[in-house]
Every structure is written in structure tokens, then in C-alpha cells.
Structure prediction request, 286 residues.
Amino acid sequence: MKLAMVGLGAMGGGIARRLLSSGFPLTVHNRTAAKADPLIEAGAQWAAQPQDAARDSDVVMLSLSDERAVDEVLFRRMLPVLKPGTVVIDTSTTSAAYANSASERLAAHGVRRVELCLLGNPEMAAQGRLRLFAAGHQQDVAEVENVLAAIGEELRYLGPPGTACTMKLAFNLLLGVQTVGLAEAVALGVRSGLDRTMLINAITSSGFCSPALAFRAAFMRRESYEPAAFRTRLMVKDLRLAASDARSAGLTLPVCASAADRLDEAVGAGHGDEDAAVVVETSLGS
Prediction:
């Protein structure tokens, strides 16, 4: 099996590390070439362009930032060279409608798409400990199950295209709201005279804390937000997508919208590429 990984951000890089350590021959591409250097040292082949990674591959994994990136990288640059029967495993978070359309567009060229919701952080990806929720044709998911088993300790099949993206948006909605809630709780305590580290430690050792919240709290405790595990601008993007999909379903999500606005303040303050936990700093400053 010829396998390619395109997009080596926090999660994509972790996935690529795991695939290499699991013995898969891997070709990699990233817009910022330097991010591939540790992977090349570990045995990956470098492709200067995404179409070079895609050409002759049996399976192509994508980890891209948004729908515009998918349009550019997958549809404009890679699709013309993908051979019929190729499986594209797309881990990019998009709207459900876009995901469904992407599957149809690829199918028109004989290319199959497995949509993958990833739950976990970059280190969990590198350790093969992600939880995976897949959508698309079930036989296509089964065909790449050996790849998925390398990066995840749990795999669930959800159904048709769009369902994995909906699952991801639901989880990211919860994460975004919790992150903003934690930031405001810390801001309240610190402004009222509590010691920052003591307060964060008290929260993370309480029944109010989840593993995901503890992970964000560690950034807040260190007051250091790079390298980001989940960039602030991408969390805003996902919350806006969740709110948009909700409107399409006849719902309003006021808490989600408020959290997106709060995070957008951090982006506007120049923190868009830092971890979303940086929202505590703009909360303290407001």
C-alpha cells in the first residue's frame, strides 16, 4: 500500500509520526516544508507539491485547516492525478454539507472518500491512542482499517458522508465552550486575588474537570501557548461552522456563538496561531 499524508500541522504531524513508527512507508507534504524535517529523518519521503504526494498513492490522508484549503489542495491540485479507486481519508473539519459535496465530487472521478472525526490531541495521535469516528461507504472504511487501527485505539462507523463532521463539530463545540468557561473562571479568581496556579490546580483536581479541560488548563498554568495543540483561529472556525449547521437544522446555539465571539477577541489580539487556551489572557485583559 502506497500511503501519503498531506498536512503536517499538530494533528497531521502526530498521525504521520505514528504511521512511520507502525512501519508504513509514507510520503509527506506540507505547505511549510520545515515541518516535515523530523519525519524525513524518521524515514518519510518528501513530496514538494501535494500532487506529487498523491500521484500513484493508494491511500491519501488529509489534515487541512478549512474548506478553502481542501478546495485548493485536494480538488485543484491533487484530484487531477489521483488514480481511480484511491481512498482519501479526510480528517479536515468542515460543515456537513461540504463533506457530503466533497464525497460526491470525488466519486464522480472514481475516488473514494472516508471522512474521519479524530478525538484526542497530537501526542495521543503519535501514540496511536485517538478515538476515531468514520463516515462514508462502510466497505471503504473496512479497506483502510489497518491504517486507522495504527492511529486509533477505538473506531466506530457512523454512516453516510457528513456524519463524522457533525460528530466532530459537536465535540469541538463542547471543547470551545469549556475552554472559554475555564478562562473566565480563572480570570474571575485571579482578578479577585486568588493565586493563579493554586486556582487552576484546584479546578483540575476537582470533579468539574475533564481530561480535555485539564489539557487546556496546563497551557494556562504555564502561561505559554505554543506550540498550539488546537489553534485559536481554528476553534473559532469550528464554532462558527457548528452555529451555521445548527441554523440549517432550525436551531440556535447562543452559548456556542458567545464562546466563538470570546475566542475571536483573542484572534483579533494577535493570538490566532496560539493554542485556544490563550483566551484566558484576553479574558484577564477585558
Q: What stands out?
A: The CA atoms of residues 10 and 36 lie 12 Å apart.
